[in-house]
Every structure is written in C-alpha cells, then in structure tokens.
Write a sequence for this structure.
C-alpha cells in the first residue's frame, strides 16, 4: 500500500503537479491524503487554494476528476471514526489513484495555536498554557526585520522596487513591506521556481524586484536562477534569509550552499552581511545595481546590535574593508562570523598574536587587491565563512595558487562548514559542532602559528 500525504499549501508546488499528472495517467493503486488546514507557512494563496475552499463548501472537485483521480471528501480530520471509515474505503479501490480530502485545523488541541494566524508554525519558545512568547534575550531587531525595513524605506523613493516571496512573507518580514505597498508585494505560494522566473520577468519589464527566499528553499529554484536570470543577465535582487546554520529548524533548513552555487555563475554579484548595518548598506547596493543579478545573504535571528544607519551607503562592488590591522596572521571573514572573529583575535592577543581582520563583504567579485596585500604582508591567511566548501575560501585559495603566493610560502587555511548535515540544536551549539566559534577559531590559528 502506497500512501502519499500532502498539505494544501504544498499542493501548489511544481513537483506536486508533476506527480498528479503522472499518477492520473496510470492505473497503479495510490492513496493520496490531502491534509487541508487552509494554511501553509503563511496564509494560502492562488487558484488551487480557492478551488479547495470551494470543494469544502460543496462544489464539485473538477480539478482532480479531470486528471483521472477518484475523489473522496471532504472528511472531518478530527473525527476519528469518520477518518478511519474514509481511509478504509480508499483501500478498497482496486485500480488507479484515489484522493482523500481531509479537513483539519492547524494547531488543533492547543487553544492558543488554534487562534494564531499561522497555527503555531515555527514558533519560538512560548508559555504552553497561554501561548505567550517568552521574552527574547536580545533587544535587537532580527536580520529579517532589518532587511524589510530597509527595503520599505527605499521603496518610498523608488516605485520600481517590488518584492516576491514563496509563502514566506512572514518569515522574511515582508509583511511590513506588504502593509505599505500591497500592490508591489507578491506571494506566489510554495513555488520557488515560479518566484525566481516571475522576478526575472519583472526585471525584464523594468522593475527592481527583490526575490526574498530562505537559502535552503532557493535551492529549489536553482535551474531558474541559472537559465532565467543568470544566462539573461537580468537584475534580479536575491535576499537570502536564513543563511548559515539555523538552530531548531535543523539540517533541512540550513543555508549551507548558496555561496558555492551562486558564486560560480557568470555575471552574479554575491554579498554577505557581517552585521545589521552592513545588511542595510547591501539592500541599498542591490537596489541600485542594474548591471546584472545580485544577491545578499544574512542569518536567522538577531545580530550583534550594530546601529542601523539612517542613510545607507552604496557599497563599491567587489570592495572589502579592513577592520583591524595586525601582523603575521590575516583573517578574512565573509558574513556574520565577523563578531566571533573579533573575539578570537582578542583571545589570540593574550598569546601575543595580533591578527589583521578584513571583512570581505563580497563573495563575488572578490576584492583580490585586498587579498593580495594581505597575502604579501602576512605569513598565514585564514578565510572564514558560514557555508560549505566550494564557496568564498575556495575561490580565494584558487586565486592565490594561480598568483604563486603558495609557492612563496604563504599558508592558507579555509574554515568552512563541515561536510555533514549538522543536526538541529541551539545555533551556538551548531557552530561549535562546525568548529566556527571564537575559541575554536583562535585555537586553530594558534596551532597553525606554532613553530
């Protein structure tokens, strides 16, 4: 017995349509359980969602019938007897696919979740009895809110700026942008491939689209990133949320690979924010960049608490910045590990090791002039990034090898995420597993500097 269980939000995704098309053309027995709770990550959108609501109100399920799929429903999913009866009847179908349409309530059984707009999806720590969120340890806004705030301010001055997301308007904080510019915010549902190509179409039409997706979900739209954006050199702006390790969401949601899979594409510009202020500058830089596709990545959660600039700067493309001057060791950080790098440098100073620190800002194009200066003036160069092998450090190492720096005696160490899927835990525990916290960075450099 093969049973496929799918939610109504995911039913709009491309692979679901491909599977329905395939199943409807065969006589193979298959039971499809559609768990319809009128929610996905955010409120459901699109024609299929409207059709399911119509089915729930008694209209004929023309969509499934037209595909040759026998339909049963609507079944009250919290009525155990009705549920068992419907599933038993589905098992008696001898040939072809049958779909059992079950209606449920997200968060059922926990009153506070039942009344929440998202049904308690991906909530942080909360009081079980009341559902009230526990106080955050940080007073800083999340990176997502910093991004959305910066984008909203820029959109006040530029009517070409618009936003596209795939059922993630809440997670990417675009709800704030949407409240101000509802006609310029597009939620396409759980359909990242469409989100990317839709953004490409907007860019081709003269708009300045920001395609805001979690790093792990951007992977679903990679073919479209290549063929519909990069090949045509369209100025789509990719706001990559949840870059790096993400804590309780675990391995499935870790943003480990975007640096590697974007930095190898011709014409792409790729940035990584070290803190909240840098993120604001990168949003402004992306908004003004019409020469081709551009992406900027930032972590889940809050940053170190940097002051939000009132007037953002447009960064010079491919130009990093020096943070601290030192000797013998140069640490080039890309992204949000910069605060840990600074702590590591303070630890090393106790052993009379005072490294230079640079914030690369760009994974592509890399500031090779800065890299060459650091390689010339130091005997050890360490790159640090919240991404897999094949990203920033790999490009730096390739460049230095071709320039002959390794042959002249320069030691290069690339610190990246390990070649495993890191299991869910608190973010600081995940980075400890990855070997990328301050103490581990300091220990690695101290060992490399030993005679």
């Amino acid at each position: 017995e093969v049973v496929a269980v799918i939610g109504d939000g995911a039913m709009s995704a491309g692979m679901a349509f491909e599977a329905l098309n395939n199943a409807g053309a065969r006589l193979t027995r298959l039971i499809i359980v559609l768990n319809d709770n009128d929610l996905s990550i955010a409120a459901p959108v699109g024609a299929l969602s409207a059709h399911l609501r119509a089915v729930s109100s008694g209209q004929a399920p023309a969509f499934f019938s037209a595909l040759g799929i026998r339909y049963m429903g609507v079944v009250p999913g919290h009525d155990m007897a009705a549920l068992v009866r419907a599933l038993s009847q589905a098992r008696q179908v001898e040939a072809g696919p049958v779909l059992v349409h079950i209606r449920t309530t997200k968060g059922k059984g926990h009153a506070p979740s039942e009344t929440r707009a998202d049904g308690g999806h991906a909530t942080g720590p909360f009081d079980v009895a009341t559902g009230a969120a526990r106080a955050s340890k940080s007073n800083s806004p999340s990176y997502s809110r910093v991004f959305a705030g910066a984008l909203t301010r820029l959109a006040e001055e530029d009517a070409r700026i618009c936003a596209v997301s795939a059922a993630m308007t809440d997670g990417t904080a675009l709800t704030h942008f949407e409240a101000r510019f509802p006609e310029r915010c597009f939620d396409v549902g759980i359909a990242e491939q469409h989100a990317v190509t839709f953004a490409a179409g907007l860019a081709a039409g003269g708009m300045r689209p920001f395609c805001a997706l979690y790093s792990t979900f951007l992977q679903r739209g990679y073919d479209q990133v290549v063929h519909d954006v990069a090949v045509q050199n369209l100025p789509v702006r990719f706001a990559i949320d949840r870059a790096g390790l993400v804590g309780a969401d675990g391995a499935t949601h870790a943003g480990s690979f975007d640096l590697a899979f974007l930095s190898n594409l011709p014409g792409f510009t790729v940035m990584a924010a070290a803190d909240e202020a840098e993120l604001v500058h990168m949003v402004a830089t992306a908004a003004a960049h019409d020469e081709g596709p551009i992406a900027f990545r930032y972590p889940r959660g809050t940053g170190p608490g940097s002051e939000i600039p009132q007037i953002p700067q447009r960064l010079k493309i491919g130009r990093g910045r020096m943070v601290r001057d030192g000797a013998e060791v140069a640490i080039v950080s890309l992204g949000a590990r910069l605060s840990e790098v600074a702590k590591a440098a303070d630890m090393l100073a106790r052993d009379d090791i005072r490294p230079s620190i640079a914030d690369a800002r760009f994974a592509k194009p890399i500031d090779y002039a800065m890299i060459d200066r650091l390689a010339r003036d130091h005997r050890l160069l360490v790159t640090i990034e919240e991404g897999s092998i094949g990203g920033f450090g790999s490009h730096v190492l390739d460049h230095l090898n071709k320039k002959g720096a390794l042959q002249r005696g320069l030691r290069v160490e690339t610190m990246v995420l390990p070649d495993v899927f890191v299991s869910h835990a608190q973010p600081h525990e995940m980075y400890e597993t990855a070997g990328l916290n301050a103490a581990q960075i300091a220990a690695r450099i101290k060992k490399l500097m030993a005679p």
